[in-house]
Each structure stands twice: as C-alpha cells, then as structure tokens.
Specification:
The protein is of the alpha/beta class and 249 residues long. It has two domains: 162 residues, 3-Layer(aba) Sandwich (Rossmann fold), CATH 3.40.50.1000; 73 residues. 43% of the residues lie in helices and 12% in strands. A seven-stranded mixed beta sheet has the order 1-7-6-5-2-3-4, sandwiched between helices. α2 crosses α3 and α4 crosses α5.
Amino acid sequence: MTMHCRIFCQTPAAMLWLVGNLIGTKDMQRFRPKYVTFDCYGTLINFQMAEAASDLFGHLLDRPRMDEFIKNFSAYRLDEVMQDWKPYADVVHNALERTCRRNNVAFRAEDAETISNRVPTWGPHQDVPEGLAKLAKEIPLVILSNAMTALIPSNVAKLGAPFHAVYTAEQAGAYKPHFKAFEYMFDMLGCGPEDITHVSSSFRYDLMSAYDLGIKSKVWVNRRHEPANPYYEYTEIADVTQLPGVFGL
C-alpha cells in the first residue's frame, strides 16, 4: 500500500478505496469528483497565527500563559466569524482585543494590524506543492477560504498549482463554518455536494459543515491542531502528498 491513511466512513467511495487496497486492485473504480475543493489557511497555507501572537506577546507571558493566550485567540477568532460578515482585519482586531482582556494584557490596535498584514506573506506547508501539482493534472482544484478577495492571491500564487477557482468569504458574504459560504461555492460552480471532495485540516471550520450539507466525500489533512472525530466520515491523510492516492492517481 503506497498511501497510509485511515478511513473513518462507510461511504461507497471510502469502501472502494479500502477494498481496492486490501486486494491490491489498482484499477478498481473510485469516486472521481467534478472538483476537489480546499480550505486554504491551515490546510494548504501554513497558518502562523500562533507564531505571530507569540512574537508580539511572548515577552510578556510565560510559556503556560502564552499557550492559554494562543488557545483563547483561536477560540475568539472562531466566535467572530460566526457573527455577521466583516472584514478579516476586524475579525483579528476583535479577537485579539478580547483575548488581551481575558488575559490581562494591554491591547494595542497596531498589534492586530501587524498580525493581519502578515497573512498574505505566508506560504504553503512543505508537502503541498507536490501533491497539488499532481492532482491538478487530473481534477480541477477549487479553494473556499475565509479570506479577503484582494489578499488571498499572494498566498495562492505560492501553492505551485493551477486552481479552477478561488472563492472567498468576502464574496460569499459569510465565513465558514456558515453554510452560506459553501452554498455560494456550489452556486458558482453549478454543482452540488454530491459532486465534490472537500479537503480540510479543520472540523470546526469545514468538515462538520460539509457533513451536515451532505458532502459525502471528505478528506481530513491531519495537521495535528484538532483531534480526530470519526463521526464526520472522512478519509484521513497525513499530508497533501497522499491526496492523489485517494483518487487512485
């Protein structure tokens, strides 16, 4: 077996993958989606919010308090995107302000701006370009990202593969995990949940909503920032170099 990933589902596509590997049949029929859709930040792009926060506040907090600060900052960002859409800079600003208040640290608006300005500079995880380049030769790739439309192109340009489309929360008028973001993507692609495979490293932002929306073919990239949750029926891979193998490529 050339790819080591665990299957946490009973979908036909997953069973075909499992049986094909068990009996060594390389040409067994697999689900071939019309599009492979991706979360961007965290899944493809190395999302360095924790590092950015540490750079700004690490001199003020010892390690246990810094870890708590980072955990709070992540939670408040999720809470902010669950509200009505607003620019991502406001998401970061509000989340950081709330985190500072909770941790008795002085908040400065310029710190939030510094963090937001770093986002377009971040590049991919090391495993990403190879896996995407191979997959893009066979299946159109699409990004659905909690991003600003003007900022994400600099990140996408670093991924090393062509994308059929890149859709943002700004265009959809909603951030993931809101269903509205996924529904915008379906409308723009002219397809339904049965036509895609969605790939993400996050359950809370992507895979839970994908499950609820009826996306049967899902892939979890285990970046080790969330625990496994087999209830949501997905294929697990360690990194994106393994993704083409999910489709028998």
